[in-house]
Amino acid sequence: MCTRYISPEQREIEAFWKIDRTSNQRKDWENLLTVFPLSLASFIRRADDVEYARELAVGQWGMIPPWSKTSIPLTARGTRLSTVNARTEGMEKSPTYKEAWSRGKRCIIPAASFDEPNWETGKNVWWRFRRADGAPWGLAGLWNTWTDNETGEVWDNYTMLTLNADGHPLMGRMHKPDPKLPPDRQDKRSVIPLEVHEFDLWLAGTIEEAKKLLKLAPIEAFDAGPIAA
């Protein structure tokens, strides 16, 4: 799971992704570079009226279930729900994510880097992950909208997709291991980086085409290591 990342500045996003237009630039958005759960940050989606036009939006990192009474994601019973990451293996049936997936509400989350915990020393050491080629990451995600019934305000919101990374030589080393489970059953998770030639297909392709892009990045794509104290 990824619970913090660094977003490029908006002008960098617009230049790298060749953004056609922007929308929903919230007045309460502070353009924070370090993004944490429930922060407002930029994400890229397909513009509704043009097949391959890209639109830059601002939304909450953490998808809001349709039944939630607040912008803080809650279960139907009112307890806190973590929705910054969505497991690809269950998203088609998940009450929180299935609508966004079935309606093709896929997005790209720009990240200069993202952080993951490494427990190989017996304690948490944060690692930072950048692209080896120096480009920003384009991480696969889903987005949706939620309406505040009290104010009528519409909130864009998004989640990062994750895959099992137990066999990955780098991502499989992250997160705290469960001593009760064998190495190949840990269910370590990884975000899903997209390549430049995959951006339009992810945003505008069919569900079957999008499924083929749900894969882990090769180790050669990463520039990763512990964050200096």
Write the layout of secondary structure elements.
Elements: E1 5-6, H1 10-17, E2 21-22, E3 34-35, E4 40-46, E5 54-61, E6 85-87, H2 98-102, E7 106-111, E8 113-118, E9 125-131, E10 137-147, E11 154-164, E12 189-191, H3 199-204, H4 207-211, E13 222-226
Parallel strand pairs: 2-5, 5-11, 6-11
Antiparallel strand pairs: 1-3, 1-8, 4-5, 4-7, 7-10, 8-9, 9-13, 10-11, 11-12
What does this structure look like?
With 229 residues, the chain is mainly beta. It has helices at residues 10-17, 98-102, 199-204, 207-211, and strands at residues 5-6, 21-22, 34-35, 40-46, 54-61, 85-87, 106-111, 113-118, 125-131, 137-147, 154-164, 189-191, 222-226. It has a 5-stranded antiparallel sheet with strand order 3-1-8-9-13, with no helix packed on it. A 5-stranded mixed barrel has the order 4-5-11-10-7. β8 (113-118) and β9 (125-131) form a beta hairpin. It is globular, with a radius of gyration of 17 Å. The mean pLDDT is 92.
Write out key terms for the chains shown.
single chain; 229 residues; mainly beta; hypothetical protein yedk fold; five-stranded antiparallel sheet; five-stranded mixed beta barrel; 13 strands; 32% strand
Outline:
By secondary structure, this protein is mainly beta. The chain contains four helices and 13 strands.
Q: Largest sheet, described in full?
A: 5 strands, antiparallel
Rg value: 17 Å
Regarding quaternary structure, what we see is single chain
Q: Assign the CATH superfamily.
A: SOS response associated peptidase-like
Looking at the structure, the CATH topology is hypothetical protein yedk fold
Q: Supply the CATH class.
A: Alpha Beta
